[in-house]
Amino acid sequence: MQHFIDFFSFADPNVRYVVLGNVLLSASAAMVGAFILLQKKALVGDAVSHSVLPGICAAFLFSGSKNTALMLVGAFITGWLALVTIDYIAAKSKLKKDAAIGLVLSVFFGAGMVMMTYIQQSGNAAQSGLDHFIFGKAATLIGTDLVIFSVLAAVLLIAVGLFFKAFALVAFDRPYAEALGYPVRKLDLLLTSLTVLAVVTGITAVGVVLMAAMLVTPAAAARYWTDNIRRMVAIAVAFGVFAGLAGAYISYTAPAMPTGPWMVVVSSVIAFLSFFFAPKKGIVPKLYTQRKNQRIIAEENTLKMFYHLGEQNSHFNGGRDLTELTRTREVNETLLKTTLRRLVSRQLLETKGHQWALTDAGYRKAARVVRLHRLWELYLTQYMDIAADHVHDDAETIEHIITPELERELEHQLGYPERDPHDTEIPKI
Amino acid sequence: MIAFWIILTGALVAITCGLLGCFLILRKMSMVGDAISHAVLPGIVIAFLLSGSRETLPMLLGAGATGLLATFLIEYFHRRANLQTDAAIGVTFTFLFAIGIILISVFAGKVDLDQDCVLYGEIAYVPIDLWVTANGTILGPRPVYILAAVLLIVVLFIKLGYKELKLTSFDPAFASALGISTALWHYLLMAAVSLTTVSSFESVGAILVIAFLIGPPATAYLLTHELKHMLAITVVLGVFISFAGYWMAYWLNASIAGCMAVITGVCFAAAFGYQRARNMNKARMSEGLPPAGQAAG
């Protein structure tokens, strides 16, 4: 607890720098990342973060010292060059974007490695610690770095704020944006530049490999919670900030722990939880609705069996046993048994010894499903000109979906029919 | 002799990666190689902790397991959660890599590993890692044997499964209509990629593995429409890159893996330029103009 208070009082200037730095860069990366994700360019961050290496080395060779500002400029130039090259290759050859990304990433990083070995052999003492730029060391952020980060983060925030609408439009509907006269290519270039800026800012904290996660992971998680882009960006930023705080806190309580990787692990965990449990889009809720629908379909199909059997002798409430039921429709017996049990507990069926019979409520429900089936068959033959022997399968699926409003509309359109295309009666309720 | 072993190692990795990379490009899955080559880190660390040594076999097993885990997670999130593929790749491999780095920091005293070696590799040390038999005969560098074995496995895999791999890459729907399981071949290919990545990375590093997985096949893809030619061009390019990369590194006294990656880029740029020029000439001809470079009229 003491740790917690110490940490969040920000009394220690070191803590203050690290926390502020982490939060700024993870928030700005997440913000830009949301647009990158929507444009399906999630791996672009990976390409840029690897491609900054030659720029950093060139800046070092040029100045002979580890001047943060100069190295950021160098990093920006090669990162930007890499992205433009990727776009050019993808546009002008039959190679897909992912191949272009992988190619540019490895070649640029390879060039950086060549320069790096050259620097290491040059014997310049200042080169030690240069690899922090590549592998990240958030815990070593100092005051001057923080000033640079804050400026960069502010630039990102303002740029995204100003062009929010345009970016959103380009991300969702490119041709429409073009038709409206938006300068789509210039906007692409601007987003590219902002991406490079975000990567360059973040790389000192988390390193080349993990930078891709800072851009994409919070945005990917946020995508599962909303369909509204403003909310999505806000949620992504919130996830990013939380991950930044958590990472800094973990490495504060356990100094051996690296901040950057923990930031990534925390935001990955958030993302995994979102993939699984986010309402509507998550795996578990989707599975639940799917199961529920399957149950409803199985129930309605079983009720229909009783109706069809009843139709043969106009005795709808008669008891039926398993063999009789399985004769009407091919069905898995265990599924049939569990469905029968459920229907009994919902009082749509009642048991009579080894037999089951429709209750009044069950009869009404069964009649309605059959009615929808036959109405739809009639609609297909009359309005869509489909032959009567081709309409059954389609009706078999739609009968579970039609709402009461649609039912009334169908009835009205068909002129309150009595009989279906197979000349059987359409039940009335 | 040192040069020979290094070039041989490079060529072996280049050929193995390139052959598999051809299929990855055709399946638009190039970045999966990138993901696997990074995602092996935690597997290596865990294998190292459990076995307590840098023995090859436990490392291969550990890394192979996390490599396959990565492909499985990517596939799972893509299919089940409907996550776009690029995001699935980005989220998965960075997560596994982060876990790897954390494990290294936690067991810093016990693990003689760092992330540099995963990214850069140590191809220059290959000739030192000799395989000495019990009675003292020196048979040459160990990695060369391992890589040759992997190459053999990959060549056999492609030879035996050529029809299936080709069909599932070009026309998955037709392949499944013929009763070929696309999922099975997907995972077989991924297993082959994992095996290759894992056995190569120690010698050449993740970056060069990516360069070899994507570079030569991408170059060959621009030059031909025929899969067999593409595979052949990839092999030739791989050998050439290994040679040229080594001599460039020798001449500059710089990172060998880095130089090989740069040569890969140069080869691609040449093929790209050639293809652009050809296309422009075609466009000129179709407008009734003479090809560029010839005097008009």
TrEMBL record, chain A:
<protein>
    <submittedName>
        <fullName>Manganese transport system membrane protein MntC</fullName>
    </submittedName>
</protein>
<dbReference type="InterPro" id="IPR022689">
    <property type="entry name" value="Iron_dep_repressor"/>
</dbReference>
<dbReference type="Pfam" id="PF02742">
    <property type="entry name" value="Fe_dep_repr_C"/>
</dbReference>
<feature type="transmembrane region" description="Helical">
    <location>
        <begin position="99"/>
        <end position="119"/>
    </location>
</feature>
<keyword id="KW-1133">Transmembrane helix</keyword>
<feature type="transmembrane region" description="Helical">
    <location>
        <begin position="233"/>
        <end position="254"/>
    </location>
</feature>
<dbReference type="InterPro" id="IPR036388">
    <property type="entry name" value="WH-like_DNA-bd_sf"/>
</dbReference>
<dbReference type="Pfam" id="PF00950">
    <property type="entry name" value="ABC-3"/>
</dbReference>
<keyword id="KW-1003">Cell membrane</keyword>
<feature type="transmembrane region" description="Helical">
    <location>
        <begin position="260"/>
        <end position="278"/>
    </location>
</feature>
<keyword id="KW-0813">Transport</keyword>
<feature type="domain" description="Iron dependent repressor metal binding and dimerisation">
    <location>
        <begin position="359"/>
        <end position="428"/>
    </location>
</feature>
<dbReference type="InterPro" id="IPR037294">
    <property type="entry name" value="ABC_BtuC-like"/>
</dbReference>
<keyword id="KW-0812">Transmembrane</keyword>
<comment type="similarity">
    <text>Belongs to the ABC-3 integral membrane protein family.</text>
</comment>
<dbReference type="InterPro" id="IPR001626">
    <property type="entry name" value="ABC_TroCD"/>
</dbReference>
<dbReference type="InterPro" id="IPR001367">
    <property type="entry name" value="Fe_dep_repressor"/>
</dbReference>
<feature type="transmembrane region" description="Helical">
    <location>
        <begin position="192"/>
        <end position="221"/>
    </location>
</feature>
<dbReference type="InterPro" id="IPR036421">
    <property type="entry name" value="Fe_dep_repressor_sf"/>
</dbReference>
<feature type="transmembrane region" description="Helical">
    <location>
        <begin position="151"/>
        <end position="172"/>
    </location>
</feature>
<keyword id="KW-0472">Membrane</keyword>
<feature type="transmembrane region" description="Helical">
    <location>
        <begin position="69"/>
        <end position="90"/>
    </location>
</feature>
<feature type="transmembrane region" description="Helical">
    <location>
        <begin position="17"/>
        <end position="38"/>
    </location>
</feature>
